[in-house]
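Observation: inputs received (chain + zinc ion).
Thought: call the complex predictor directly.
Action: predict_structure
Action Input:
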Amino acid sequence: MRILSVETSCDDTAVALVNVSRNRFSVIDSLVSSQTKVHAPFGGVVPNLAAREHLKNLPVMLRGFLKKNKISSGNIDLIAVTQGPGLIPALLIGTNAAKALAYAWKKPLVGVHHISGHIYANFIDRLSLTSDVGEIRFPVLALIVSGGHTELILMKKHLDYKIVGQTLDDAAGEAFDKVAKMLGLGYPGGPIVSAIADKFRKSFKVRPFPFPTIHREIPQGQTFQLPRPMINSKNLDFSFSGLKTAVLYTIRDNPKILKSVKLKSALCYDFQQAVIDVLVHKTVQAAKKYKPKTILLGGGVSANKELRKQLGEAIKRLLPNSQYQLPAAGYSLDNAAMIAVAGHYQYKLAKNKNKFDNNWKNLEADANLKLV
Ligand code: KG4
Ligand code: ZN
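Observation:
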């Protein structure tokens, strides 16, 4: 089965062609056009600008993509598109393009939840730190961390989602973006803050794992002691806005941070570690409670090397019976291949239950689409 997919929920315009054979997914081609430069001066994504860019880019990208991969109505079996959640003006561009193709080619169309896509990104070119590549075993516990979401999701089977923990305010990626903005580092903040933190770690002797250690010394006698919000709460929810405010107050009380590369780097390191401590701790707590066979990571923040590593180390040490899965390189951040994979499972399930809605007209973009 060959699936053509489209993703335009935020500031990336993405199309992909994925082949499915015996539940193995191979990405034949995947294109992502980033709008980072357009939004950077505003320090965040401007919805109408995002829609304008999608509208400008998507038709050109699609035309080139179809031609390059010799795609026609005769060799496509399914079209998948991100239905929500996201920015409605942005979502509308992708869903309308997908609907037009489904109509013109008389092909089935599925609307995919963006988070479902991030989960199923783990099924592409599988990468496992704790065992050889094999089937992903259920129950699965997914930690999805992106610019808009921070959620712990339990899956007893395919497409069966139960949110067992989530952020009460900012998402982890959003906190990275805001901290980068406060430090004048640019947008998007995650990759910049993590690159600075990694460089800082390499140049100084820092605390060893075990986890979770809360305080550590910063060179030059400076200790920021950022909080780990809700790390000791009884539930599995998160909060990152307090951490963001703590960074703001730290900068306000020590204005020399903004002028010192070393202090800025130390603060980036400390902030990143605070986020990782909370994410790892809560995931371990959730896993102890729900005993998943697989723990998987997804969303833009899953590109963070230190998070990938520290979560892997914690699982190996504390949860030896759980397998650890990560999205393959290139599939942490928004892309359309993950939408094709999730769309495949949706299509298969609906067909098996005789419940597939074959009318493309019924697919509506939904900014607040619920996962469950
Ligand atoms: O999943 P994604 O591409 O878009 C949304 O669905 O939001 O995630 C984007 C988020 C941004 O907040 C970005 O700063 C963050 O992922 N991000 C990172 C890293 N790379 C991207 N955060 C921490 N470390 C990274 N290496
Ligand atoms: Zn995303």
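Thought: report the result.
Final Answer: Residues 10, 146-148, 173-174, 176-177, 188-191, 194, 299-301, 303-304, 333-334 surround KG4 (ligand 1) (CB under 6 Å). The chain has a mean pLDDT of 91.
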